[in-house]
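Q: Given only this backbone (183 positions), what sequence would you predict?
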C-alpha cells in the first residue's frame, strides 16, 4: 500500500498526490457521482493538478485518493469540504473512475471510512451531501449507509440545458454512533 491513511477490507484511502490530478480532474468531470456538481467548465489535466495541490493547502477541506488494496490502483477521489470547526460540520463528495467495476461497493466502503474519520477523528457532528433529486437510486444507496434526506433545493443545478432540483442529505454523529454500535 502506498501511504495508507485509512484502511478498509478491499480499499484504502491515501493522500492525493500532484500526479493524481489528471485522473481526479477526469473523474470529477465525467463520473456519475462527482461530475454532477462540476462547474460545467472544462477541467484540464493542469487544472486537476492545481485542484489536488489546493486540497493539500486548504485547511477547510481534506482530499483523499481511494486505491484498491489488491493492486494499489487509484479508483476514486474523495473530498470533505466546507469544514466548519465551530459548527462541526462539513460536506462530502466522491468521484469514481467511470470505468470502475464494483463501483457501488467501493463507494460504500470509502464512504464508511470517511464517515468514521469525520466523526471519530475530526469530531464533526454533521456530514452533508448534495444529490440530484432525479437520481433516486443514489439516494437509496446513501440512505442505506445512514444518510437522511433534509430537503430539496429547487432548481439548484443547471445540467444538460435544464434546471434540476438537488436533495440535501446528511448524517449526524449520534446516527453514526448508533450504526457503528449495531455492526
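A: Predicted residues:
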Amino acid at each position: 500500500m502506498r501511504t495508507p491513511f485509512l484502511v478498509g477490507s478491499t480499499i484504502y484511502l491515501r493522500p492525493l498526490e500532484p500526479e493524481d490530478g489528471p485522473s481526479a480532474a477526469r473523474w470529477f468531470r465525467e463520473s456519475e457521482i462527482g461530475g454532477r456538481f462540476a462547474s460545467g467548465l472544462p477541467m484540464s489535466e493542469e487544472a486537476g493538478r492545481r485542484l489536488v495541490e489546493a486540497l493539500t493547502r486548504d485547511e477547510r477541506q481534506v482530499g483523499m485518493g481511494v486505491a484498491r488494496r489488491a493492486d494499489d490502483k487509484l479508483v476514486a477521489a474523495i473530498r470533505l469540504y466546507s469544514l466548519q470547526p465551530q459548527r462541526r460540520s462539513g460536506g462530502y463528495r466522491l468521484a469514481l473512475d467511470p470505468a470502475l467495476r464494483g463501483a457501488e461497493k467501493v463507494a460504500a466502503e470509502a464512504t464508511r471510512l470517511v464517515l468514521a474519520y469525520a466523526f471519530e477523528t475530526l469530531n464533526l457532528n454533521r456530514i452533508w451531501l448534495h444529490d440530484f433529486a432525479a437520481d433516486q437510486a443514489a439516494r437509496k444507496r446513501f440512505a442505506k449507509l445512514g444518510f437522511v434526506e433534509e430537503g430539496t433545493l429547487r432548481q439548484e443545478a443547471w445540467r444538460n440545458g435544464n434546471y434540476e432540483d438537488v436533495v440535501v442529505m446528511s448524517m449526524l454523529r449520534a446516527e453514526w454512533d448508533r450504526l457503528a454500535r449495531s455492526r
